[in-house]
Write a structure and sequence with these properties.
Order of helices and strands: EHEHEHEHEHEEHHEHHEHEHEHEHEHHH
CATH superfamily of the largest domain: Glycogen Phosphorylase B
Helix content: 40-55%
Mean pLDDT: 89
Distance between the termini: 15 Å
Structural class: alpha/beta
CATH topology of the largest domain: Rossmann fold
Low-confidence stretches: none
Strand order of the largest sheet: 3-2-1-4-5-6-7
CATH architecture of the largest domain: 3-Layer(aba) Sandwich
C-alpha cells in the first residue's frame, strides 16, 4: 500500500483592513507554517490598507486589490465601488489561476469578498473565518457555497448551514498568550510604577474619536486619582491628543502613544482595559483576562460591535457603555470600577472562561482536513 504523505500546500489568505482582521490572519498563517512547514502562503489584501504594511513585515508576500467598501446607501459613490469591484474580481481570478491554491481562507475585510467569490466559481476549497457573533452580509451570502465556516461564537446556526460550521474561536497573536508573565517588563517599557493602577485605553489600530474625547475631557479628573494611563490614540488623533497632554501638569501619569507595537506589554501593564468591541480585540481580552469596559463603534456594518459586546456583558464578563454616552460616562465608570476590587475579580474570572487559546491551530486543521481529503480522492 502506498504510504500517505501530506502534499506541499499552496494557501491564499484574503482580507484585512484593520488590525482586527490582519493580526488573526497572520496568526493563522503562522500556525499553518508551524504545522506544515513547506506550505506556500500568499496574502491578498486591499490597496492602501493596514495589511499592505503589516503582512510583508511579518515575512509573507501580499498582493493588493483596488476593492473598496460598498456604500451603505445608494449614491454616486456606488459607481466607483462597482468599477473597483469588477477590477478586483478580474485581478483575483488572475492571481488564483497563477498561484493555483489548494485552499483560500477569507478572514473578513474588503479584499476577502472578491477572492472568495472567484475561488467558489473556480471550485477551489474555501474556508470562511467569521469573527463576529453577528454574521456579515458577505459571509451570509457565501455560506451555502464555501466548504467550511470557522466561527468564534456558539449559536451561529441561525446564519449558516449547521453542517458547515466549525467552532474554532478567533486567533490571537502568540505574544499575547504569554503576556501574564510580562508585568515587570511592561511597567519598565512604559515607564510606569507598580504603586499606581494602570488604565489601558484602546481605540483600535486606527484610533477612536469618541474614546479620545472621553479621555481628553477628563484629564483633570484622572489627575485627581492615583492612577496611570496608557492612551493609544491612533495616528490621526495624535497631534490633538498631544496638545491635551501638554496642558497636563503631571505628564508622568499619562503615556500617549499613536500605535502600540508591543500590545502584549500594554495588556500586561493594565489593571483595567477600555476598548472598542471589534471581534479580534474581544478575543484578545478574553485571553488576557482583565476587567474591561467596551464602547462599541457605531460606524461598523450591521452594528456587529454592539452585538459582540453584549455577548460578554450578558454573562458579566465586561461592562458596555454606548458610544453616545461615552464622553460623559466612560472615565468616571473606569475609576469607579478600579475602586471595586470584587467586581474586577468577578469580571476577570468570567472573561477568562470565554478564552480560546488555540484558534489558529483549529482553523489550520480545518483547512488541512479539506485539502488532505482532496489528496486521498485524487
Amino acid at each position: 500500500m502506498k504510504e500517505y504523505k501530506p502534499m506541499s500546500l499552496r494557501i491564499i489568505i484574503s482580507g484585512g483592513g484593520t488590525g482586527g482582521h490582519v493580526f488573526p490572519a497572520l496568526a493563522i498563517a503562522h500556525a499553518i507554517r508551524k504545522m506544515r512547514p513547506g506550505t506556500d502562503i500568499l496574502f491578498i489584501g486591499a490597496l492602501g490598507k493596514l495589511e499592505m504594511e503589516k503582512v510583508p513585515a511579518a515575512g509573507y508576500p501580499i498582493v493588493g486589490l483596488p476593492v473598496i467598501g460598498m456604500p451603505r446607501k445608494l449614491s454616486f459613490r456606488f459607481v466607483p465601488f462597482l468599477m473597483k469591484w469588477m477590477l478586483s474580481l478580474m485581478k483575483a481570478r488572475k492571481i488564483l489561476k497563477k498561484f493555483k491554491p489548494h485552499a483560500v481562507i477569507g478572514v473578513g475585510g474588503y479584499a476577502s469578498a472578491p477572492v472568495l467569490q472567484m475561488a467558489v466559481r473556480m471550485n477551489i476549497v474555501t474556508v470562511i473565518q467569521e469573527q463576529n457573533s453577528y454574521a456579515g452580509l458577505v459571509n451570509r451570502s457565501l455560506a451555502t457555497k464555501v466548504n467550511r465556516i470557522c466561527v468564534a461564537y456558539q449559536g451561529m446556526e441561525k446564519y449558516f448551514p449547521p453542517e458547515k460550521i466549525v467552532f474554532t474561536g478567533n486567533p490571537v497573536r502568540t505574544s499575547i498568550l504569554q503576556c501574564s508573565a510580562l508585568r515587570k517588563e511592561a511597567l519598565e517599557h512604559f515607564d510606569l510604577t507598580e504603586e499606581r493602577p494602570v488604565i489601558l485605553v484602546l481605540g483600535g489600530s486606527l484610533g477612536a474619536g469618541t474614546i479620545n474625547r472621553s479621555v481628553a475631557k477628563n484629564i483633570k479628573l484622572l489627575q485627581s486619582y492615583n492612577v496611570q494611563v496608557i492612551w493609544q490614540c491612533g495616528e490621526a488623533y495624535s497631534k490633538e491628543a498631544g496638545s491635551q497632554i501638554a496642558e497636563n501638569t503631571e505628564e508622568n501619569k499619562i503615556r500617549l502613544v499613536p500605535f502600540i507595537e508591543r500590545m502584549e506589554l500594554a495588556y500586561a501593564a493594565a489593571d483595567i482595559i477600555i476598548s472598542r468591541a471589534g471581534a479580534g480585540t474581544i478575543s484578545e481580552l478574553c485571553v488576557v483576562g482583565k476587567p474591561s469596559i467596551l464602547i462599541p463603534s457605531p460606524n461598523v456594518a450591521e452594528d456587529h460591535q454592539t452585538k459582540n459586546a453584549m455577548m460578554l456583558a450578558s454573562v458579566g464578563a465586561a461592562m458596555v457603555i454606548p458610544d453616545a454616552e461615552a464622553v460623559e460616562k466612560l472615565i468616571p465608570s473606569a475609576l469607579a470600577l478600579l475602586n471595586d476590587p470584587g467586581r474586577c475579580r468577578a469580571m476577570a474570572e468570567k472573561i477568562k472562561e470565554l478564552a480560546v487559546t488555540d484558534a489558529d491551530e483549529r482553523i489550520a486543521k480545518v483547512v488541512f482536513s479539506l485539502t488532505d481529503t482532496l489528496q486521498h480522492e485524487s
